Amino acid sequence: MFKNAFILIIVASFGCFLYGIRHIYLEVEDNACRMTYMFGVPQFSQVEFEDNKLYPHYGLYYYYEGKILQNVNNLKLTGAPVIFIPGNAGSYKQVRSLASVALRKGMDNERGIHLDYFTVNFEEQLSALYGGYLENQKKFLHYAILAVRRLYAKKYNVDKSVILIGHSMGGKVAESALQDPEISKYINTVLYISTPIDKPVVYFDSKLDKFYATSTNYLYNKHASHIPNRETNVCTNFQDKIPHRTNESMILDNVLMISMGGGNRDLLVRDGLTISQFSDIHAMTSSIPNVWLSCDHLSIVWCLQLVTVINRFLFGITVIDDYRNVYFSNDKLYRTRAAINYFVKPLNKRKPSEIEFTKSTGDSIWQEDSKIAFRKSFKYGLRTEYNHMMPVSKYKDFKKVYIEIDSFEDFEDDWIYGCAAVANAVNGGITCEQGLPISHYVQNIPSNDRYRSIALLDFQHLINYYPDWSHVLVRLKTTSKATSLKIDAYRKDERRYQVKSPRLFSFKPKVLVNETTLGTIHSEILIEGLEEPFPTLQFKVEPLACANDDYEVNAKICVPWARGYDRHVHRKHDSKDKHIYVNAPFSAPSGYNTTENPITLELYLNPACRYRISYELSVAGTSSKIVQEFYHWLPAHLTAVLFWVLRNQIVKFQNSEKTIFIKPYAGFFQCKSLYIVTACRLLKKMLMPMKFLPITTDATNYSFYVSIIIHGTAIVLSIIAVFAIWTVLTFHGNILYKIALKMTRISSASSEVLLKIMSTLPLSFGALFISISMATCSGIGLLLATIFYFLMISNAYKDYLEDWAKDKAKGIFKTISKKFKERNKKKSDETALVPSNAEVSTNNEDNEEDNQEENDNENDVQNAESVEYFEGLENFAFHIAMLLLLGIMAMLNFGLGIAWIKSHYHGHHLNEHLPDPSLWPSIITLSSLSLLLQAGAPHKSSGYNYVAIVLYMCFCCCILYCQEHIYRLNYLIAAVYLSVALQEVLHYIQRRRSH
């Protein structure tokens, strides 16, 4: 029963994983980015500098537009310099959108401010797959910054700082430039666009790990940091959004660091990786004013809405001197306020002061009203100013008063004031002669192609601070466009709903509000229990009736421990998906109390509609988040499954009397490894407090079912992989053979000779592929070794099938021949009652032949029973498991192989410029495999019991140390190969001594 239950769990885990993949790629929201078009012909002029000779395959370019070719080295540049750094597989031409918009904005700028955009060519290197690139890119960026500064030193000797904009891994290269004191003093601001800053998406090699660790350790002592704790709540305390650990001795504190993430559409760099503890400002594109949408990993560099905001910020921090030289402000406080204004929340740049109304009122309309639900529309605009006065005394009992104006176009203008009313002698009413702007209460939310400008006031708070005020004034200026005013007053607890996240297996929807009252605009939902990044709640705000208005819902999601992750969601009547999904971008700090600091979901509704609000745990959303957050655990769990399978094969191979290991898939149908995963989680909790153990144990404490889903998926993948290999072995063994011929560019005859040599002298296998690994890289050597190892198994399986077919045919022929002779003998007995002497002689010969056949059959049975196990390549189950481990190792070094191929294509050798971090594990693995083939492994030996213990330990290490840092699997696989090879060598020595 337990076995069947585990099988169901494994199948359900794999189904959940597939369902999550489907939801990610098929249910992703539409791309709402507007394309950025060039105003002229894009041109790139290469900057010449002496240090470029050290890295001739890299380049620095200046962007301009026009048909006339220009040489940047002869130009007198006066703009503020910006350097764009592309990321993984990114082109230097991706700067086009940012630079073109800045170029046109500079031409239209009355002050004469303009920017000079430069871009770096890194040959579209896969820096996210191979960390060896990053150090060279960092050094070249060092020389590029100095070269850009030299272009401006020719005129007025202006000391200009530069701004770095890094996309994807380019942002990490930009951050690494801060480690050099000679360069960091010239860096003004760093913008990270969809960059995995504090940790990579996947740790593919040790160079990548070291690069990140070095950068983090350096910045921790040189720049202010922000690490959320149990008290952090960015939803109620704006100061929690700004890094607070600072010190005057931190030499990098003047560098402004701004990070941006793409949101749900970015499937390459998940949300939680785009923020850094050193970022002064963080924002998601879905929360940036005037952007309010999600961008995928590539569109984020050309999305017109975002490109425009970035350039507005850059122009906003730029100043110009008397000599018309443009440079970036060195005042970090000024730059920080500008960043908040453009990326977080528009700020009122004017100092609040009393404003006189009497001189500008004229024929203005003044109206006093104290309704708790008020709505006034001006479909054809306003010819005169409209002033709506809200008496403070009438609203003091209402804790929250929501005020909204629609189609308000200017961030700079104030529209809400506090004032003391006086009697109007002209019409007998009341007016305000002067008022104080309270625009710091104003925020903006998206609405179709416009935005809704809102203010949420606490009148009791206003009375305490401004006792002289009698009214809150809303002023609508004259406009030709349709506009409206909406007011919704309510007590604090009337629209505040507490929600606790349902458990994993709770799928039943729960109704939160059966029907909202007409006129309701604002509601607040407090969500407890979403501490981890994968549980996802879906809220359904269903319109029951609307009065001649389209259905529309706006939502704002705030996660209290995740600064910059405010997310706006806009749903309307024609939206494909009307649900609102709520989850956290990363786990809450240890011990965080989500009851005191819950995730908040604010709903902004249409007051002309009545709604039903319900919620439930989203299976699709939760599955997709598990896939996004933990798919990189699969290599570690798949390797652990293969270690467990190999351990079971060894144990059964040594103890069973009748082998079943002629079947390549033997031993892969198992579920006991789930027990070991559970034990590893318990072991992790025991190891964490021990200081003498490596501190690199994965310290994440996610729910147990995440490990079950990933491990169950790994078990199914191992079964699929072995069946695929078995199918290819049986029916299409020549497919990989042809692939190997194309990769190695050798003829069929030469390859056959090579295979015969490796089969006859297996030590040549290791010598050949170790030589290839050292001459090229370990990725190439491991890939070719995997293919040729498969071909050797394929040839052995083909020989086995031929022998098996011959034996079966021989057995069938003997059976048919025996039956035919028995039938003839029966007929001869019936026809002759008394046999002659000749017949007696013939019968004796037949009896002798029958006895001989029976003896042969008995001997065949005895020989079959005497064979208790298959050795060498005929133990296909053992060698298939070893082949899969070698294949995983080759896949882990895939990025390294691509790096070598690209470097070879561009004419420079990888080994001369870039290190090979997996060379020694590859040498150990290939040498051990060569010894195994030479010794005809596996052999029955008691020493394999110790190998089984090693496999146990390696299994645990996969779960404890390799889920995040998958490059460590190279060392574990090499250790397993070495253990098996040593066991075979010791067995050989012991057997020689016994003889």
TrEMBL record:
<feature type="region of interest" description="Disordered">
    <location>
        <begin position="827"/>
        <end position="860"/>
    </location>
</feature>
<keyword id="KW-0653">Protein transport</keyword>
<keyword id="KW-0812">Transmembrane</keyword>
<dbReference type="GO" id="GO:0015031">
    <property type="term" value="P:protein transport"/>
</dbReference>
<feature type="compositionally biased region" description="Acidic residues">
    <location>
        <begin position="845"/>
        <end position="859"/>
    </location>
</feature>
<keyword id="KW-0813">Transport</keyword>
<dbReference type="GO" id="GO:0006505">
    <property type="term" value="P:GPI anchor metabolic process"/>
</dbReference>
<feature type="transmembrane region" description="Helical">
    <location>
        <begin position="765"/>
        <end position="791"/>
    </location>
</feature>
<dbReference type="InterPro" id="IPR029058">
    <property type="entry name" value="AB_hydrolase_fold"/>
</dbReference>
<keyword id="KW-0472">Membrane</keyword>
<keyword id="KW-1133">Transmembrane helix</keyword>
<protein>
    <recommendedName>
        <fullName>GPI inositol-deacylase</fullName>
        <ecNumber>3.1.-.-</ecNumber>
    </recommendedName>
</protein>
<feature type="transmembrane region" description="Helical">
    <location>
        <begin position="876"/>
        <end position="898"/>
    </location>
</feature>
<comment type="similarity">
    <text>Belongs to the GPI inositol-deacylase family.</text>
</comment>
<dbReference type="Pfam" id="PF24660">
    <property type="entry name" value="PGAP1_3rd"/>
</dbReference>
<comment type="function">
    <text>Involved in inositol deacylation of GPI-anchored proteins which plays important roles in the quality control and ER-associated degradation of GPI-anchored proteins.</text>
</comment>
<dbReference type="Pfam" id="PF07819">
    <property type="entry name" value="PGAP1"/>
</dbReference>
<keyword id="KW-0378">Hydrolase</keyword>
<dbReference type="GO" id="GO:0006888">
    <property type="term" value="P:endoplasmic reticulum to Golgi vesicle-mediated transport"/>
</dbReference>
<feature type="transmembrane region" description="Helical">
    <location>
        <begin position="704"/>
        <end position="737"/>
    </location>
</feature>
<feature type="transmembrane region" description="Helical">
    <location>
        <begin position="943"/>
        <end position="962"/>
    </location>
</feature>
<dbReference type="GO" id="GO:0005789">
    <property type="term" value="C:endoplasmic reticulum membrane"/>
</dbReference>
<keyword id="KW-0256">Endoplasmic reticulum</keyword>
<dbReference type="GO" id="GO:0050185">
    <property type="term" value="F:phosphatidylinositol deacylase activity"/>
</dbReference>
<dbReference type="InterPro" id="IPR012908">
    <property type="entry name" value="PGAP1-ab_dom-like"/>
</dbReference>
<feature type="transmembrane region" description="Helical">
    <location>
        <begin position="666"/>
        <end position="684"/>
    </location>
</feature>
<dbReference type="InterPro" id="IPR039529">
    <property type="entry name" value="PGAP1/BST1"/>
</dbReference>
<feature type="domain" description="GPI inositol-deacylase PGAP1-like alpha/beta">
    <location>
        <begin position="77"/>
        <end position="315"/>
    </location>
</feature>
